[in-house]
């Protein structure tokens, strides 16, 4: 007798991100039939025991599926067992495509938490048309990279009551009460490894984007210029800022391009920054980032970075990952400032450009706990749930899409706000 088809399967459940996704699934996927998958039965059973005890829930009857990224037949069988695969098995650069292929062949939706632009854009280039043909949604960047940013721009636009020209996003990450007694690690080495390979192969993105987007978007005025690194931003209490790594911006711009091509909607320009309390803190980050950037270009340097993550990350990454205490006290906050024109402002005749400078602003706050392994897991599962319940509100019949394009017409933001480790969206100023 064939096994009953599940709503969702969490693949890579014995990994660090995977096991916390299992924990959050107890509440986020309540009412749905879900299981877990990986290559080692004993480790998967151990995860169910550990996360069952943590959530005070009996998970002993949770279905287990054995699937290995090196065995394509097993991936296909896993994909056939469910309606959507929740993929936590990175680095996606090496392992993601095989799972995507299996899902498309099986007619099964796929979400993951990749923050690797090269992987995401390659999947769109190779599989978008096939996914549409098969009625399958393949959506990456469904964690901290880049649900807050991409859905934040969606939230801004829905509440702007006019036309948005640009958005500046200021990101702050911290630990309530300080890091004393929590350990210094904020990342697991799986996340660290994905980041190193993304940095090392950044130049690939230019060639991929030329193939993916052979035509450039029209230029809209006024252009949003980048702020100087190590400058201060009045929008966030004069904190020192540095450019935020490119994932959020690249994902947002893919969504904006999709909406322009689909609806001819004016694209929103976006820049993203990290905030720091002092020149010294920001300068230390610049130093470490420079060393990592140089070392990642060479094979020997990458080997050292991956072998000694704690040394080269200043203790931020470790094989054990962050402690429970650190995860419980970690949080992020985004301050998004949008500028544009009120509805009353008129366009110039015979053009879609405005003749006057932007006169309207909207400031939005987006925040959540434990960005790496709390909010990320809730966001990932919430996107899966939204696809299962609201695919009729998503564009077309499928495709490889960024979150903002995929979920713009759904209730994903409301779903994110429901959960203890979810993400909150709030208007703080409207001028």
TrEMBL record:
The chain crosses the membrane at residues 279-300. Keywords: Membrane, Oxidoreductase, Transmembrane, Transmembrane helix. GO terms for biological process: glycolipid biosynthetic process. The keyword Membrane applies. GO terms for molecular function: oxidoreductase activity. One of its GO terms (cellular component) is lipid droplet. InterPro entries: NAD(P)-bd_dom_sf, Saccharopine_DH-like_oxidrdct, Sacchrp_dh_NADP-bd. Residues 9-139 form the Saccharopine dehydrogenase NADP binding domain. Belongs to the saccharopine dehydrogenase family. This is Saccharopine dehydrogenase NADP binding domain-containing protein.
């Amino acid at each position: 007798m064939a096994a009953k088809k599940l709503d969702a399967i969490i693949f890579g459940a014995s990994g660090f991100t995977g096991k916390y996704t299992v924990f959050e699934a107890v509440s986020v996927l309540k009412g749905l039939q879900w299981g877990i998958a990986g290559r080692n039965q004993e480790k998967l059973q151990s995860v169910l025991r550990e996360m069952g005890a943590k959530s005070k829930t009996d998970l002993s009857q949770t279905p287990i599926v054995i699937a290995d990224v090196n065995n394509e037949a097993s991936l296909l069988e896993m994909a056939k067992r469910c309606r959507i695969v929740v993929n936590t098995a990175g680095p996606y650069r090496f392992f993601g495509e095989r799972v995507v292929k299996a899902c498309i062949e099986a007619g099964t939706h796929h979400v993951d938490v990749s923050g690797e632009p090269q992987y995401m854009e390659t999947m769109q280039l190779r599989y978008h048309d096939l996914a549409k043909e098969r009625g399958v949604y393949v959506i990456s960047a469904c964690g901290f990279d880049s649900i807050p940013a991409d859905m934040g721009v969606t939230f801004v636009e829905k509440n702007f009551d006019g036309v948005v020209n640009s958005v500046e996003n200021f990101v702050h990450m911290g630990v309530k009460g300080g890091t004393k007694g929590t350990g210094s690690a904020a990342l697991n080495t799986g996340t660290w490894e994905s980041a190193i390979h993304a940095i090392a192969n950044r130049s690939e993105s230019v060639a991929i984007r030329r193939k993916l987007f052979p035509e450039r978007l029209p230029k809209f005025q006024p252009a949003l210029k980048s702020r100087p690194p190590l400058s201060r931003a009045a929008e966030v209490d004069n904190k020192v800022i540095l450019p935020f790594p490119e994932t959020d911006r690249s994902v947002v711009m893919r969504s904006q391009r999709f909406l322009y091509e689909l609806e001819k909607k004016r694209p929103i320009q976006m820049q993203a920054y990290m905030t720091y309390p002092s020149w010294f803190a920001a300068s230390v980050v610049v130093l470490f980032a420079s060393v990592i950037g140089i070392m990642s270009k060479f094979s020997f340097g990458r080997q050292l970075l991956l072998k000694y993550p704690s040394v080269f990350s200043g203790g931020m990454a470790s094989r054990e990952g962050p402690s429970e205490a650190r995860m419980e006290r970690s949080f992020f906050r985004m301050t998004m400032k949008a500028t544009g024109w009120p509805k009353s402002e008129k366009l110039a005749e015979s053009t879609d450009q405005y003749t006057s400078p932007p006169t309207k602003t909207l400031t939005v706050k987006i925040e959540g706990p434990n960005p790496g392994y709390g909010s990320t897991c809730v966001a990932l599962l919430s996107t899966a749930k939204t696809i299962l319940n609201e695919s009729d509100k998503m564009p077309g019949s499928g495709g490889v899409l960024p979150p903002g394009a995929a979920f713009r017409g759904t209730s994903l933001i409301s779903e994110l706000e429901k959960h203890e480790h979810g993400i909150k969206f709030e208007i703080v100023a409207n001028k």
